[in-house]
Amino acid sequence: MVIQLLLRKKAGSLSDSEWERFLGTQDHRENIKRNSAEISPGLTKWQDIQLMSQAAHKYSGAFESLDLVQSMTARCLVNSMTMTDGIFSTLGTCLSTSAALLNHSCNPNCIFIFSGASLSIRSLRSIPAESELTISYVDITAPSHRRREELIPMYYFECQCGYCTSKLTCGQPDVPAALNAGLPSTQIFKLEVEGKRLEGLAEAIAPTEKAKLLDEAMDLFVSYKDMYPLWRYPWPSIRHELSMVRWRLGQQSIAICHVLKAYFFIDPVIYPGPWHPIRTVRTFTLLKMLYELQYQMFRSADGGDQVEGGLKGYNIEWPSVNKGLEQEIEAAVPKCFGTESSFAEEYNRVTKLGFPEKYGRKVDWTGERAKLRKAAKELVD
Q: How many whole angstroms separate alpha carbon 181 and alpha carbon 342?
């Protein structure tokens, strides 16, 4: 990114106004220099910036001083953001001087949405006139002490938003009453750390081994399920990863049950509001899984008994479920993504394939939703 900026400056394709806006962003250079923590053995963040800057300066043949290039590198690190596709899969990094103006809140009222190369700011709820627009720089599902721990070394401020000062996460107490009464704070902290450790170890390994590690992580929290809320960090992300790997391993009904658990009991808490983009993407994932499940049931010699698994006992009429989920997504898309977005295009492509309505009877979505909720509650912890 720094090399690209230097080459554009050298070629004259970077306007003066763009350059000035970039130099107007914060670099936190002095704070970075004072930070002696090592990001890898024998290497501090400032030393890393020095090395990257030397390489960028030499490769680009820039006329700017090395000192300015170091400042540019720091600005890019502090102000860049993760670029994603329509379903929040990481594509790379992006630098927008306009987007960098938005301040952080652990209860943000906005979120960045990418559609191809376009970046938009979408509201997460109704925003009163003249209110400040805020985004979150960190994972808002993490408890306040972890959010602050992440913000300080990266952005050099201690968050004083209402959620942090009141020790809230997603509008809920960091440590709910039942958990506070049942476990000492040291044990809660150990659960968080061990859960994230196992989740981290499960990255980039074979699905079978990944499932074992994620099952081990899940068991940590299942042991305390009467006091440890389903929505509390880091249980939701572990469940999400487990559902994806179970699906890849061909364990469709188990995977769907975990996604249903999140749909009913987790996502409404950590992604509140009917048009939250992440919640909408998760609902879309559920819909796609159900489409595939029904196709397999339709083709199955035993009428789908084995494919449907434990869900069969709930006598669910799948076409009604399809329609209900489709309506929820279609109601949310204009607000959370836009009707011309890449997400909307993907949704329309998938739902055009859909599933033949001839399978099953058309019945009430409300009744089927109740069946799904019951299944989600009973079939998996």
A: 46
Closest CA to 254 of 267, 239, 276: 239
DSSP letters for 259-289? HHHIIIIIHHHHS-STT-HHHHHHHHHHHHH
What was the pLDDT predicted at 140?
A: 94
Q: Is the pLDDT of residue 101 over 70?
A: yes
Write the CA distances from 66 to 18, 26, 58, 347, integer angstroms.
Answer: 20, 18, 9, 47
β pairing state of 90-94 and 81-84: antiparallel
Could you tell me the pTM of the whole model? Answer: 0.89
Q: What is the pLDDT of residues 347-356, one digit of tens each?
A: 999 988 765 5
Q: Is 84 a residue whose pLDDT tops 70? A: yes
Q: What is the pLDDT of residues 187-208, one digit of tens each?
A: 999 999 999 999 999 998 999 9
Residue owning tokens 């469709």: 252
Q: Is the pLDDT of residue 340 over 60?
A: yes
Q: Which pairing describes strands 134-135 and 103-104: parallel, antiparallel, or unpaired?
A: parallel
Residue ranges of E strands in 10-77: 38-40, 43-44
Residue 57: HSE in the Cβ half-sphere, 13 Å Cα cutoff: 17
375, amino acid identity: A
In 3D space, the residue among 295, 249, 353, 299 whose CA is nearest the CA of residue 258 turns out to be 249
CA 53 centroid distance within chain: 31
Burial class, 35, CB count within 10 angstroms (exposed 0-12 / middle 13-18 / buried 19+):
middle
What pLDDT, on a 0 to 100 scale, did the predictor assign at position 232?
96
DSSP label at 251? -
Q: What is the pLDDT of residues 284-322, one digit of tens each?
A: 999 999 999 988 888 876 656 667 788 888 999 888 899
Task: Tally helices (H) and strands (E) across the chain.
Answer: 18, 10
78 near 25, Cβ under 8 Å?
A: yes
Can you tell me the distance from the alpha carbon of 171 to that of 162, in angstroms, rounded to the nearest whole number? 10
How high does pLDDT run on average in the chain? 91
